[in-house]
Design a protein that fits this description.
- The chain is built from 13 helices and 13 strands.
- The chain is of the alpha/beta class.
- It has an eight-stranded mixed β-sheet, with helices on both faces. The protein has a three-stranded antiparallel β-sheet with strand order 10-11-13. The protein has a two-stranded antiparallel sheet with strand order 6-7.
- Helix 5 links the parallel strand 2 and strand 3.
- The longest helix is centred in the C-terminal third of the chain and has 32 residues.
């Protein structure tokens, strides 16, 4: 039971604990105005500066910015099909966790991969690495790791598993920027690593995303896939092509079936400002996380994630312990009355969504924990500012509703 519940019962005014909130201030508005004054709005110098700063912050060689985290996943998967040595092929298999965002999975289907879905750990919401061997087949070529809601997955073990079995490792870090595992930033363990800069994420650039890699060939492939599949943005010399002695034709030379998922200069300029603020914003999120853990950890009515490494705390997930038979709809009604926003944990169990009828997909085992999270779980928001009153109010509502 909450220690200071008596004091909290005096709270009658709604606290409006929103699910999402802006992390902007005048700094980002100034960045927008600078871009307007420059009269250069399409991808240019601001994007390039942000890419360089982002790669430096995370300690990788290359960064490619795109218009969303979903596009980051798309061109990452696409690039792996055009490597000169051991490219992925249609019909290959990918091991994926049961809980992730929809566009973690969609590019795998779009490029003809079969997905083998592994259950998650209930105490972390991340993939259960003990089941990876069972998911492995002679056709497995790709391992997808996802850190859920700021909490690092067992990325070191995933990296080791990929290396031992000669798999490509793709890390989807769209929910967990600035988290750490063993003093290494998440989003740096994979051959390709993706980030999202959507509203209320750890970095918010209106829309936007990033791919990090240390592989020069993948970097060149990502640049081409981002912009029409042409050669214009690719550094020379390149492992992808030999330049021709015709400047007119070379300016519009297409070598890959790419996309246009370029970001704007606005997003690049905003990203630079947000990156400068990221350490302090993560610190604020972690202070809120410390209070959340203090109030909820050890209460057997609620399953809350065990922190693995250093979480960047995207949000506060809670699973109602099925043993007690609490009515989640009753909880949702109480949260709504208290002006507390809530939503599904990431995308829930992917096997429970209509879209799987279009996938070549197979569950490894029963996905018991993913189903529990799907049926009994939800999360409330965390933001880079002091949420002490809101978190206390949330704890009070949960305590009163789940008796």
């Amino acid at each position: 039971m909450i220690e200071d519940a008596t004091a909290l019962t005096t709270m009658t005014e709604p606290l409006f604990f929103n699910l999402s909130a802006s992390s902007w201030d005048d700094t980002e508005i100034d960045a927008i105005e600078e871009v307007i004054a420059s009269n250069r709005f399409t991808m240019g110098a601001c994007v390039a500066k942000f890419e360089a700063a982002f790669a430096s912050y995370f300690g990788t060689r290359f960064a490619v910015m795109v218009n969303s985290g979903s596009s980051a996943n798309l061109i990452s998967v696409a690039s792996l099909f055009y490597k000169q040595e051991k490219p992925l092929l249609r019909g290959d298999e990918a091991i994926v966790p049961a809980i992730a965002w929809a566009t973690t999975y969609h590019p795998l289907q779009q490029y003809g991969l079969k997905m083998r879905v592994v259950d998650v750990e209930l105490e972390t919401l991340n993939v259960d690495v003990s089941q990876l061997e069972e998911a492995l087949t002679p056709r497995t070529r790709l391992l997808v790791g996802v850190s859920i809601l700021g909490n690092p997955a067992a990325l070191n073990l995933l990296r080791d598993f990929a290396d031992r079995h000669n798999l490509v490792f793709m890390e989807d870090n769209c929910e967990s920027a600035d988290a750490e595992l063993g003093k290494q930033k998440t989003g740096t363990f994979g051959d390709v690593n993706t980030f999202s800069f959507f509203f209320s994420h750890h970095i918010a650039t209106m829309e936007g995303g990033m791919v990090l890699t240390d592989d020069e060939e993948l970097y060149h492939l990502l640049l081409a896939m981002r912009a029409h599949g042409w050669t214009r943005d690719i550094p020379r010399p390149s492992p992808l092509f030999e330049p021709k002695n015709n400047e007119f034709k070379e300016a519009y030379r297409f070598i890959l079936p790419g996309y246009n998922v370029r970001p704007t200069e606005f997003s690049g300029a905003i990203g630079l400002r947000q990156l400068q603020k990221l350490p302090s914003m993560t610190l604020a999120r972690r202070k809120n996380l410390a209070l959340f853990k203090k109030l909820f950890t050890g209460d057997e009515r609620f399953i809350v994630p065990r922190e693995n490494g250093v979480s960047s705390s995207f949000s506060f997930p809670v699973i109602l312990n099925p043993v007690f038979g609490f009515d989640r709809n009753k909880v949702f009604s109480a949260l709504g009355e208290a002006s507390i926003g809530f939503r599904m944990i990431t995308g829930g169990n992917i096997m429970r969504h209509d879209v799987v009828k279009y996938y070549d997909i197979e569950a490894v085992g029963e996905l018991t924990n993913a189903n529990i999270a799907h049926d009994y779980g939800f999360f409330v928001g965390n933001h880079p500012r002091d949420l002490t009153p809101q978190i206390n109010r949330f704890r009070q509502v949960m305590d009163e509703t789940c008796r």
